[in-house]
Amino acid sequence: MAPKDTTKKTKKSTLDEVVTREYTIHLHKHVFGTTFKKRAPRAIKAIKKFAQDTMKTSDVRLDPALNTAVWKRGVKSIPHRIRVRLSRKKNDDEDAKERLYTLVTVVPITKPAEFRGLQTETIHDE
Q1: Cα separations (Å) of 51 from 29, 43, 126?
Q2: Cβ contacts of residue 40 below 8 Å, gap of 6+?
Q3: Fewest CB within 10 angstroms: 9, 31, 59, 115, which?
């Protein structure tokens, strides 16, 4: 039997990492069957929950342009899919409960056919 490696390797926490990724969120499956007057608010909540689950931060901030993109066609006729950019950033506020927060912005897509073949992309800022 081979001897075991007794040295412990420290692994960098992915939660402390500042990263930016682009995702496509299928909003229609979150609001299907919802009362018309509650569709846009439910879509906003679904985007917020997606950002919390994906980036593992409870502090999620939505860009006003994202809110405008969801509400553009009214309360009941939201887009089926939306492309968003999630940026995990360091919190500069001293009184903050968490060290990191997530900023959600919209990526402009003009035609629904442009969603085909899009994958999750990591954006490298340098």
Answers
A1: 16, 12, 23
A2: 70, 71, 74, 75, 76, 78
A3: 9
Query: Could you give the CA distance from residue 12 to residue 45 in angstroms, rounded to a whole number?
Result: 31
Both structure tokens of 22:
């682009």
For the four alpha carbons of 63, 69, 72 and 76, in that order, the dihedral sign comes to negative
pLDDT confidence of 4, banded at 50, 70, 90?
confident
**Cα 79 from Cα 101, distance rounded (Å):** 26
Indicate the pTM of the whole model.
0.83
Phi, psi of 76 (to 5 degrees): -100, -15
Strand order in 100-106's β-sheet?
60-62, 100-106, 81-90, 19-26, 121-123
